[in-house]
Design goal:
CATH architecture of the largest domain: Beta Barrel
Order of helices and strands: HEHHEEEE
Distance between the termini: 56 Å
Strand order of the largest sheet: 3-2-1-4-5
CATH class of the largest domain: Mainly Beta
CATH superfamily of the largest domain: Protein of unknown function DUF1093
Number of strands: 5
Length: about 140
């Protein structure tokens, strides 16, 4: 019974961490008080892209896979199941943590042409956007009317 509970708990944690999304823009606790600058522009081209895993999904997947694998078999079989579970979990976690995004070519109101990557939203050519940045780092991109 304990193993089934642990297996279900691990599976739930894996799914929740891989599928969690936040619909609101989020600032880190260390930089929310800093002054940000913004640019206004119009999107002239959109291209769909994928953002690769930053290592988090691979790590969590390997951890969960190793734990689940260690619950299987005994002796040499247990060691093999642990290894296969860890490798399989790392592969699945890395794939699950990839994100869809859009590469936006933007003509800024000051005449400059830039490219930014935005994820979690859907933009179209002709949309007017506000790009909030800190130095050269893009914090947020959102549509304005």
């Amino acid at each position: 019974m304990y193993r089934i509970f642990l297996l279900l708990l691990s599976l739930i944690l894996f799914v929740v961490t891989g599928c969690s999304t936040n619909s609101k823009p989020e600032y880190s606790g260390t930089n929310y008080r800093q002054i940000k600058h913004y640019e206004i522009g119009e999107i002239v081209a959109v291209r769909n892209v994928r953002i690769s895993d930053d290592g988090t999904g691979t790590f969590v997947g390997a951890l969960v896979g190793t734990v689940l694998g260690s619950l299987t078999g005994g002796g040499r079989g247990n060691a093999l199941a642990t290894l296969i579970g860890g490798l399989g979990g790392a592969y699945v976690g890395g794939k699950a943590n990839k994100a869809n995004a859009q590469e936006l070519s933007v003509k800024l109101d000051n005449g400059e042409d830039i490219v930014v990557i935005a994820k979690g939203q859907s933009f179209l050519v002709g949309d007017k956007v506000k790009i909030i940045k800190e130095g050269n780092r893009v914090e947020q991109v959102y549509r304005i009317r």
